[in-house]
Amino acid sequence: TSAVTKPPSFIARIKQTITAWGPQLINRLQKIDLKQFVAFLIKRKWWLLAIVVLVYAGNKAYDHFFPAESKRGGPQTVVTLVLEKQDIPIIIESTGTVVAANIVDVRPQVSNVVKEIHIKEGQEVKKGQLLFTLDDRNDRANYDKAKAVADDAQRQLQRAKELVAQNFISKAGLDTAEANAKSAVATARAAEVQLSFDYIRAPIDGRAGIINVFPGSLVAPGNVVTTTSSSTATTALGAMVTITQLDPINVQFIVGEDSIPLLMQSDPNSLKVAVSVGDQQTQTFEGKVLVIDNQVDPAIGAVRVKAQIANDKRLLLPGQFARVKLEANTLKDAILVPSQAVVINPRGRFIYVVGAEDKVSLKPIKVSYEYQGKAAITGVEVGERVVIEGKQNLRPGTKIRESKSAAAQKPAEAPKPESKPADKK
């Protein structure tokens, strides 16, 4: 049998090439005119510089993305998390305005002069409570007159019934007496209604606002109140007083079109809100949704929502700016990771998964919901171990070791936080 010939090594091949082409290369270099060569280099110096820069940059990039094992400094220290399922609330954040559940501008129904004011500014009043008394002298006199005529007509009717029974008057006489009695009673009732307009009562329970009239003010139906308590009569626009129901109180806000499906998928009777006002973001007021409007406002691309909140301590007032967190639904069996664990590049979203020998690999994922620095993801399995901190120095195949810091603790179940719509990528 013939011996198997071993192919020459790479170094041996280089030596053979130099031996074969070396003399010819030397002869060619000796024939080159040095001045022409230098002129050639000067003429094309920018091209040569660009080539050098590109070669250098490419070398650095290669070392960065594919570092030699000796340059990696051993395993990278990271924080990992073992994935598990949990239920998380889907929160829609919005802004709105505190509005009264009921508010009434108290105005007179007749032109008259204010005689008495029975309440104080800021006082809590009950429905039907007397607020103002107007000058009732003329209306009371008219009522008393009408009442006397009605009483007399009733007596005449009773007398006519007795006379008809004794055949002293005809049936037509009785009919006339009945008509007169009914007319007189109706006139008395009208006079009574007119008199009642001089006694202005609270139409709802609530708190009285600033009183815009004084004893002696001339008031009339409409918005104009004329005050005559000073030496010069003045005219002011507005109601006599405004009564506002403060408990419960409402909050009106908007929900964008992209979040409307979340509302429609939820039971309207179970929708809850948490409201904060002004700088009191640490103090929240709990409530429930009353109504979702039946159409989207095309001017703002959103639907209006009204919620009701208990306000027994009167800490909320109509007109306040409100921050609203609406718990629209619950995402069941979600896999949650810190948002910082998600790797974003032009190809999509990924996460580093720890595999055999503590080496990492990039796994494509989708973010279905994100809030308060946490993301609900799909594309991974329960029980997988993922990198949540320290991903900056990782590359596929990098070996890792677990950090012993407190940051290694897994995130607790998320509170009810602010949110943003789910990422569609």
General description of the model:
Helix 4 (137-165) runs antiparallel to helix 5. The chain folds into 4 domains: 10-64, no CATH class; 70-88 and 331-420, conserved putative lor/sdh protein from methanococcus maripaludis s2 fold, CATH 2.40.420; 108-243, Orthogonal Bundle (Helix Hairpins); 245-330, Beta Barrel (Elongation Factor Tu (Ef-tu), domain 3), CATH 2.40.30. With 425 residues, the chain is an alpha+beta fold. The chain is built from 6 helices and 24 strands.
Q: Oligomeric form of this entry?
A: single chain
Derived from helix and strand composition plus strand pairing, the structural class reads: alpha+beta
- Count of helical regions: 6
Strands, total number? 24
Classify the fold: give the CATH topology of the largest domain.
Helix Hairpins
CATH class category of the largest domain: Mainly Alpha
Quick one: overall form? Answer: rod-shaped
Our count of domains comes out at: 4
Strand order of the largest sheet: 2-13-16-15-14-17
The amount of beta strand, in percent, is: 35-45%
Helix content: 25-40%
What's the rounded overall pLDDT mean?
82
The profile of the biggest β sheet is: 6 strands, antiparallel, barrel
Stretches where pLDDT falls below 50 for ≥5 residues?
A: 227-236, 410-425
The ordered string of helix (H) and strand (E) elements is HHHEEEEEEHHEEEEEEEHEEEEEEEEEEE
Question: At the fourth CATH level, what is the homologous superfamily of the largest domain?
Answer: Helix hairpin bin
What attributes characterize this protein structure?
425 residues; conserved putative lor/sdh protein from methanococcus maripaludis s2 fold; Helix Hairpins; six-stranded antiparallel barrel; six-stranded antiparallel beta sheet; 6 helices; 24 strands; rod-shaped; disordered C terminus
